[in-house]
Specification:
It holds the Pfam family YCII. The protein is an alpha+beta fold. The protein is built from two helices and five strands; from the N terminus they run βαβββαβ. Strands 4-1-5 form a three-stranded antiparallel β-sheet. A two-stranded antiparallel ribbon has the order 2-3. The longest helix has 20 residues.
Amino acid sequence: MKSNEFLLVFWKGHKTNELQPSAVMLKRHLKYWHEWVISLAVNDLLASQLRRWDTGGRVLKPDRSIIEGPFKENNELIAGLITIYANDYQEANEIALGCPILDLGGTVEIRMAVSNSLNVISNY
């Protein structure tokens, strides 16, 4: 078993029609996603299943106001996320390079889970 968990956040552009795949491309692309996630699971690299999220959501601002819809200033939306097992960032990067969202112009954000040594919650 790998020693660290990494969060992979999948970002996808949404503003223009040319960024959106055709129905045929989408079907093929979903097949690649399925194959990629299965390969992660078979190799004991998958810490959590891929989950899809709605395209709505809410953003809470510092003044406590609530905005409906995602924060769209960068023209990207979170398309999904998973957690994987890897030894270090280099290995997590190599795993993420196989992510099918890259083929559609999306990006993958990689974050390593921090240890629970601070155990902040137990202090409350």
